[in-house]
TrEMBL record:
Name this protein carries in UniProt: Lipoprotein
Keywords recorded for this protein, A-Z: Lipoprotein, Membrane, Palmitate, Signal
Membrane topology (UniProt): Lipid-anchor
Compartments reported by the entry: Membrane
CDD domains: PBP2_lipoprotein_Tp32
PANTHER family: D-METHIONINE-BINDING LIPOPROTEIN METQ (PTHR30429), METHIONINE-BINDING LIPOPROTEIN METQ (PTHR30429:SF0)
Signal sequence, start to end: 1-25
Family: Belongs to the nlpA lipoprotein family.
Length: 289
């Protein structure tokens, strides 16, 4: 996702909740949407899914263009450029589903916004990476270095864990990916700059290093496999991105159909070929609670 408005996460959330209708989308054509929800939804009605442009929109557009018609699914993809509006639009019914997030983020969002969005099926993982235009290896970072990290709760903890796993900082025992800056036991002289995840790639040259989400790295034409000086491991990674809906709509026949297509061999091959740089890795199957 690329965002042009330099809003803080809190401001973006407030804007989304108070101005959701105008911010999410101008009045759109919902004539194809089913008035019934869940298992009673019309399987022939249009299914509207919100997504980040890359890689989520890319994957959904592939399904729409190559698989949906044969499966009898009318799929519309609406792209959003932040981490708030897709969930807001799903909650208020402007879209039927979304595909852009992992479970730690969704759990935090639901808690803070009193929403009831639930995951349906895992699709892919985007390994978090540490990037630098001023150094070629992690050892180049040390006292006096400035590192940009995402400022949302889940991705910041994930970023701090990546830094700790690579010896850049030391976290308090047992904290892991739930870490906050207050949980850093030893900064080793490093200073942190907290930014919205979408803004970090454009600020990479202003800091010594930055932790960047996989989808934003792709948009910034960074190759995780080649450009990252440290990369999150994919095996056992709890941050798989999934298809999500408002609770009660899991049994919508269109959602069931889309979930099957997103976990198909065709989509697996598409992901592996389009993102051969390791920025996106297939991660099919049920979402662990």
């Amino acid at each position: 996702m690329r965002t042009t408005a330099k809003l803080t996460a809190a401001l973006a959330a407030a804007a989304a909740l108070t101005l959701g209708v105008t911010a999410c989308s101008a009045p759109s054509d919902t004539s194809g949407s089913s008035s019934k929800k869940g298992k009673d939804a019309d399987p022939a009605a249009k299914l509207v899914v919100a997504a980040s442009p890359t890689p989520h929109g890319d994957i959904l557009n592939f399904v729409r263009d190559h698989l949906a018609a044969k499966a009898g699914l009318k799929l519309e993809v609406k792209e959003f450029n932040d981490y708030v509006l897709p969930n807001t639009a799903t909650q208020n019914g402007e879209v039927d589903a979304n595909f852009f997030q992992h479970k730690p983020y969704l759990d935090d969002f639901n808690k803070k916004n009193k929403t009831d969005i639930v995951p349906v099926v895992n699709v892919e993982i985007e390994p978090l990476g540490l990037y630098s235009k001023k150094g070629k290896k992690v050892a180049d970072l040390g006292s006096g270095s400035t590192i940009a990290v995402p400022n949302d709760a889940t991705n910041e903890g994930r970023a701090l864990k990546l830094l700790a796993d690579n010896g850049v900082i030391k976290l308090k025992d047992g904290v892991g990916a739930a870490a906050r800056l207050s949980d850093v036991e030893d900064k080793k002289g490093v200073e942190f700059t907290e930014l919205e995840a979408a803004q970090i790639p454009s600020r990479l040259a202003d800091v010594d290093a930055a932790v960047i989400n996989g989808n934003f790295a792709i948009s910034a034409k960074l190759s995780p496999a080649k450009d990252a000086i440290a990369l999150e491991k994919a095996d056992g990674n709890p941050y798989a991105n999934f298809l999500a809906v408002k609770k009660g709509n899991e049994a919508d026949p269109r959602i069931t159909k889309l979930a099957q297509l997103l976990n198909s061999d065709e989509v697996k091959k598409f992901i592996q070929e389009k993102f051969s740089n390791g920025a996106v890795i297939p991660a099919f199957g049920p979402v662990k609670s």
